[in-house]
Design brief:
The chain is α+β, with helices and mostly antiparallel strands and about 450 residues long. The chain has one domain (about 5-450): Amidase signature (AS) domain (Amidase signature (AS) enzymes, Alpha-Beta Complex). It is about 40% helix and about 15% strand. The chain has 16 helices and 17 strands. The protein has helices at about 5-10, 15-35, 45-60, 100-110, 150-160, 175-180, 215-225, 265, 270-285, 295-310, 315-320, 325-335, 340-360, 395, 400-405, 435-450; strands spanning about 40, 70-75, 115-120, 130, 135, 140, 140-145, 165-170, 185-190, 210-215, 255-260, 285-290, 365-370, 385, 390, 410-415, 425-430. Helix 5 (about 150-160) runs parallel beside helix 6.
Length: about 450
Amino acid sequence: MNTVEILGAVASGAASAREVCDAALDRIAESEPRINAFTERTTARARSEADAVDARRARGEVLPPLAGLPYAVKNLFDIAGITTLAGSKINRELPPARADAVLVQRLQAAGAVLLGALNMDEYAYGFSTENTHYGPTRNPRDPSRMAGGSSGGSGATVAAGQLPLALGSDTNGSIRVPASLCGVWGLKPTFGRLSRRGSYPFVHSLDHLGPLADSVEGLAFAYDAMQGPDPLDPGCHALRVQPAAAQLARGVAGLRIGVLGGYFHEMASAPARSVAQLAARTLGARAEVEWPDAAIGRAAAFLITASEGGSLHLDDLRKRPDDFEPLSVDRFLSGLLQPADWTLRAQRFRRIYRDRVNALFQDWDVLIAPATPVPAPTIGDDWIAINGQRHPSRAALGLLTQPISFAGCPVVAAPLWPEGTGGLPIGVQLIAAPWNEDLCLRAAKVLQDSGVAHL
């Protein structure tokens, strides 16, 4: 059953939350040897939460909006009683979390049932989830291929049909890349929209949290349940809730929709260009649009990522560099070695960049671009080809996502299936001005209803 069917079945009594939970646990047990999405399963907690939902229904109480919906979270979210690994070996030495992350608390309050913690790139620094400590997460569409990252376990668990919903984080594309490569739906909200309290940080000035799901409805329901101000998180700037699920049926009539060209055309393979054009035709895009300073924005994002990420782990990099995985340690060290002035200039440029992007949205409501330049590379591939040019695969997978998150814009990644990829998906990004998640989700619902975008 998908998200809508599960919620309907539990609400009506056609299925109990415990039955839904146990079915999900069975699917996970069957497919995990092939996928490796999980690092921890919270079986006892899940059954307890499911039983609590069923007890509420037995008492005749009104059920909360996500009653009985199973989900899991990237292992950088705190789960009470479990050590928050953040994909690392070093974090195994930390004490268990004393409380759930705020977004986990909010999903529990909405009736969702937590089934575990999911694999990721170490400290969220990567786009492939080829984790040397916990093993690579494999793409359910082809287990020889990358699931994407750093929220690779989150993308894979939904694509494998283990769960209808997962939480991930997105600093430079870590929700949208696995959504694109695994062929699921993903939402990176506006920077500052959702509380990050209780999640292990990567780059404080760029980190976002958000859902991956089996449908647009799944994204919208989870997003609505997680919204709300958090005075204890100085990075949470949302002062009021703006429900999105109720807006899905409005469609895109009257919206000014464009498709990004220039950088987003040049840095995309032919199949990636084709899915953007298909989405553009379906949504009635009016013109090709140039995103301002995309390449410079990506470069500045790299500088800030390396510097802030390296600084966060300075003590461990000095004392125990061999306990980091090879795919991340060199990048953290390079960030520590770069001149501080580079980071300051990148942050100053970010203010200018945001102004230029916001000016673009005076003329457009939704913009379309590919989410990744290519479909999922084979695990272990160091290079990918884009229009005849070789690029380092683990960095190039974020070519098309980094310029967007650097501006803080909300984005939905929608799964499309181009020709010429051997049946592998490539997602498209549906981008709106900050604080307009509902517009992205409305456009995504049109793609879903048309059949163009689907799991």
